[in-house]
Write a structure and sequence with these properties.
6% of the residues lie in helices and 41% in strands. The protein is mainly beta. The strands form three sheets. Strands 2, 3, 4, 6, 7, 9 and 11 form a seven-stranded antiparallel β-sheet that branches. A four-stranded antiparallel β-sheet has the order 1-10-5-8, with no helix packed on it. The protein has a four-stranded antiparallel β-sheet with strand order 12-13-14-15. It is globular, with a radius of gyration of 25 Å.
Length: 231
């Protein structure tokens, strides 16, 4: 009975990744080991030189992380998980001396608590010249985790909420200009608003206002003479 109540854990080894880079990076020239805020210099800051959105160049399924012969370099290893149920477990990364784990664009921890969604796992690593660091990634969970290198995924909740969407439009009095409002939502809920002033007929972009403008109440004739006056 005791054996029946113990939930077994399954280890899933991630053996294939999308690879971006590695790309050469150089340490900044400095006369001291601390910055102006008194913080000690850390080699891991070199990893900030590479964006998480860097496109993958090929598939990687080796044991030794790619590095450059004559320069420090930064690379990305990524994969995706599409889980239909809530998933709790742990992820373990072994091998790289300097690396950071990101889950859905945010720095992650070994403890996994994944909602039913399409999740992006990214390992950003820093390699020394001619480095031969190994890489082993394992997910420990109640069931086998099916991972993929394909960004396409089933329709998920974030497909309804994330991304850039038109939220409104306002025409000038004579209909020649329109102000469009856009909301861009990132994974995690952070969002920003952007605005565009365009010609209605040609869709030519006139300007990008810094705030949501309102047309001044003017007659049609006056609007033609001062059609770009907005507040």
């Amino acid at each position: 009975m005791t054996a029946m109540t113990v939930s077994s854990q399954v280890k899933t080894d991630i053996t294939q990744f999308n690879l971006s880079g590695p790309y050469a990076v150089a340490a900044p020239v400095a006369f001291d080991t601390v910055d102006v805020q008194g913080k000690k210099y850390d080699d891991k800051t070199l990893m900030n030189a590479m964006s998480l959105s860097s496109p993958a160049s090929r598939m990687f399924d080796g044991q030794v992380l790619p590095s450059l012969e004559e320069s420090r370099s930064v690379g990305l290893l990524s994969f995706y998980v599409n889980n239909s149920d809530y998933l709790k477990g742990k992820i373990e990364v072994k091998g790289p001396k300097n690396y950071k784990l990101f889950i859905d664009g945010a720095e992650g921890s070994p403890d996994l608590k994944l909602a039913p969604e399409h999740h992006t796992f990214t390992i950003k690593y820093l390699a020394e010249p001619k480095d031969t660091d190994s890489i082993k990634v394992t997910i420990d969970a109640p069931q086998t985790v099916a991972y993929t290198l394909e960004a396409r995924h089933p329709y998920m909740v974030h497909d309804l909420t994330d991304g850039k969407r038109v939220r409104g439009g306002s025409l000038s009095a004579d209909g020649q200009l329109v102000v469009l409002s856009y909301q861009t939502t990132e994974r995690g809920g952070n969002s920003r608003w952007d605005y565009e002033l365009r010609e209605t007929k040609t869709q030519r972009l006139v300007s990008r206002p810094s705030h949501n403008p309102r047309w001044m109440p003017k007659s049609r004739g006056r609007e033609r003479r001062q059609q770009t006056r907005i507040i």
